[in-house]
Amino acid sequence: MHYSPKKGQSHGLPYDPFKSSCIPRPIGWLSTRSKDGVDNLAPYSQYQNLTWDPPMVMFAANQSVLDGGRKDTVRNVEETGWFVWNMATWDLREAVNISAKALTADVDEFEAAGVTKKSCIEAPVSRVAESPVQFECEYVQTIRIPTGNKTSTVDLVIGRVAHVHVSDDIILPSGKLDILKIKPIARLGYYDYTVVNEIFEMKAPAATVEELAGLEGKTV
């Protein structure tokens, strides 16, 4: 089957196949703080790293289903200049899911999700203490992409990673992160998620030593 979203053609299926094709998607479990000092925590499934030197990340947010305006996360980032990415894991899956609930801006979502606040070094934002990896991210810019629909209009937010926190107990003797211990979760679409509980290795064929080092993230 095939169809053209550009031309408004229906796929004819009971569920949108697009949302379950670009998978798995890392979860942007983002904490921010409003200018009034209220801590916000919310998961975004359109999240990704952009580059590694300097390390930068992005997330995309549609408009709020409550009032059609910008999400609290986007507004907080733009007003304070900071956000924190907290790695979402199998052990934290219920807290991640609770934090997806649309709540008003005056609600402390750390408390709602039942997770512990931990101070940052540079960002004036709380991070999730139970999360094994966190990035303190300094706001760079927002790219607003209109779609012709008020709710689906996209705010693409870019941040530069200013500080990285990694729990000591997830670092292997090799210096790599113990992904199987962490068990990160990822978004699949529908109501479905997946968890990383199996790893296999492939090296790019005929790559130079420098290229392989870059792909592996090896430091010299």
In short:
By secondary structure, the protein is of the alpha+beta class.
Which helices and strands appear, and what pairs or packs with what?
Layout: E1 25-26, E2 28-33, E3 39-44, E4 47-52, E5 55-61, H1 72-80, E6 82-86, H2 93-98, H3 109-113, E7 117-119, E8 126-128, E9 133-145, E10 154-166, H4 179-182, E11 185-189, E12 192-195, H5 209-216
Antiparallel strand pairs: 1-11, 2-3, 2-6, 4-5, 5-10, 6-9, 7-8, 9-10, 11-12
Percentage of residues in helical conformation? 10-25%
Secondary-structure element series: EEEEEHEHHEEEEHEEH
Uncertain segments are: none
If you compute it from the alpha carbons, what radius of gyration comes out, rounded to the nearest whole angstrom?
Answer: 19 Å
Biggest pleated sheet: 7 strands, antiparallel
Q: How many helices?
A: 5
Give the termini separation: 49 Å
Describe the structure.
- By secondary structure, this protein is α+β, with helices and mostly antiparallel strands.
- It is built from five helices and twelve strands.
- The chain has helices at 72-80, 93-98, 109-113, 179-182, 209-216; strands at residues 25-26, 28-33, 39-44, 47-52, 55-61, 82-86, 117-119, 126-128, 133-145, 154-166, 185-189, 192-195.
- The strands form three sheets. A seven-stranded antiparallel sheet has the order 3-2-6-9-10-5-4.
- A hairpin with an 8-residue loop joins strand 9 and strand 10 (154-166).
- The longest helix is centred in the middle third of the chain and has 9 residues, at 72-80.
- The termini are far apart.
- The mean pLDDT is 94.
